[in-house]
What does this fold into?
Amino acid sequence: MHPDDRAPARAARRRDRTPLPVVLAACTVLLLITMTAGVGIGSVALSPGAVWQVIAGHLSGHAENTVAGTIVWQIRLPRVLLAAVVGAALTTAGTVVQVMVRNALADPFLLGVSSGASVGATAVLLLGAFASLGVWAISVGSVLGAVVAMAAVFLVSRRGRQLAPTQLILCGVVLSAMFESVTSYLIFRGNPQATQSVLFWLMGSFGLASWNQLPIPAIALAAVMIYRLGQGRALNALAMGAEPAASLGVDVARLRRNLFFATSLLAGVAVAVSGVIGFVGLVVPHIVRLMVGSDHRRVLPVGVVFGAWFMVVGDLLARTIVAPQEMPIGVITAFIGAPTLIVLIRRRPYAYGTTS
Amino acid sequence: MSLRLDGVSVDLAGRRIVSGINLTVGDGQFVGLLGPNGSGKSTILKAIYRVHRPSAGRVLVDGADLLALKPKDAAQRVAVVAQEPVSEFDFTVREIVMIGRIPHQQAFSRDTEDDHAIVDGAMERTGCGHLAHRSFNTLSGGEKQLALIARALAQGADHLVLDEPTNHLDISHQVAILELVAGLGVSVLAALHDLSLAALFCGAVHVLAGGQIVAGGPPSAVITPATIRAAYGADVLVIEHPDTGTPHLIPRRIQPKTP
It folds into this structure.
C-alpha cells in the first residue's frame, strides 16, 4: 500500500473502536471520583476537598493529627484501596480464565481456589489453626487452602502435557464441591458463635482492611498484569481456539499452564484478604468486552480499572445500605451481578460445547 | 517454497491414525488431500501445524524440519485455515485478521503501520475489506472463510494448509474460495471432500484410506472409478469436464430406481 493511502485507512481504523487511552482515561476519572466518594461517605461525612487534603498531607509528609485525618487515612482509604485492588485482581483473573477454558461462563473460582481457601479460613476460625500468627492467621490459612486446591485441580485435570479445558472445568467443579463439603463439615462441627464469623468471611468483606494488607495483593496484581499485558496477543490467539493458536506459533500447553498459575495466584490472594466475593470475576469481564470489544490488549487494562471501580461501588453499597450495620459484599455483587449476567446471556448468542 | 512429508506417522492415544505418509507440495502448487471421513486427512494436516507430533517421519518446510523450528518461525512459513470452532468472543473481522500478525510481533510491541498495511492488503485481496468492522460471529459461512483466509495471508507464510475450506458453503462460494486460494501464488495443501472440485483446482491429489495414501498424482490419473471404489467404497461414474477435461464424478444410487 502506498504511504499516502494510509491516512484514510488510519481514519477508518479509528472509527472501529474508541481509542484505548480515551477509554482508560474515562474509567480512571470515574474510579477516582468513586474512590473519593467511597472515602468521604460514611457515619462521619467528609467533603471531597477534606478527603484529598488529608491524602495530600500524608503524601507530602505533613499529616495533621485530626479526627478526619484518622478516619480517612487509617480506616476508609485502605479499605477503598483494598477493594479496588481486589476488584482489579478478580476481573483480571476472570478475563483470563474465560479465555483459558474458552467458556464465557467460567470464573476465577472455577479452579477450586475459593473453596480451598474457604477450608483453610474455616479451619483457622473454628479450630484455631495458625493461632500463633495472629491477624495473619486467616490469610495464611486461606492461601494454604487455595494452594492445595489449585495443585489438586492442576494434577487431576492434566492429560499428558495438556490442560484440556473440559477436563479443567469438570475437575474444578468436582473438587470445589469436595472442598465445600469439608467446609460444611467444619461449620457443622463448630460452635455457633464462631460459625457466624465463618459465614461472614465466606461472603466476603473489606471490613478488616488495613494498610499492611495492601502490598501483597497489589504486588501480585502488578506482576501478573505486566505478564498478562505481554500475553495479550497470545490470549487473542487462544480465544480463537487451541489449534489455531498453535498454528500461529503459540505454545498453547505452556501458555495454559502459566495462565493457570497466574490466575490461581490472583484469585487466591484476593480471597485471602477479602473472603469469597462472587460474580465480579464472572460478570465484569463481560461488561468490559461489551465496552471495548474482545481484543485482550484492550480488555485487560480496561478491566483493571473498571473492575476496581465495580468493587469500590459494591463496598460502598455494602456498608451504607443497612448502616450502621454492614452487609457482606458478596451479597451486593451477586445481587447486581446475577441479573446483569442474565441480561448479557439473553442479549448475546452464547455458544456452548466448543471442543477445544 | 516447498512442503514435504517424509514417512510421517501419527499415533493418538496409542493408536496409529496415519502411517508412512509421503507427499510433496512444490512451489506454488495446489495439492489436494482426499479420502473418506476418518481416513486421516485432518490428522495429517494437524501434524503439519504442530497440533500432533509425528511419531515417525519428518515434516520439511523448504528442507527444514518443522519441529526443529521455533513455533514462531514455523508460523511464519506455514499458515492454516482450519475448521474453526465457534468463538465465544466477539472479535471484529479486522481484529481476527490482525491476529495473523502474531508470529511477526514481539510481546509488548504495538501494531506497526506495516502490520496495519499488511492486514488491509490481506482483506483487500480476499475481498472482505467491506467486512472489516463487522463482528466475526455475525458473518455467513463464506464470509467467515474469507476472513480466515485473510488472516492466513496476513501471516505472510509461503505455505497454506486448508482443512475442508469449502465445507458448508454453497456452490458459488465453494468455487470462489478455491479460485481465491489457487490465485494466491503460495503452495497449498488442502483437505477436500468434493472430488470434482478437487480435480478442477488441484495440480495433484493424494487419496487416503485407512490412514495410508492409496493413490497419488494428477487428478486425471487418480480420480477413477476404481480408486474411488477402493478408497470410499462408492460406485461412481467419472466423466470429463467439458471446460477443462478434468475428471468429474457422477454419483450412482445404491438401489437402482425402479420405473
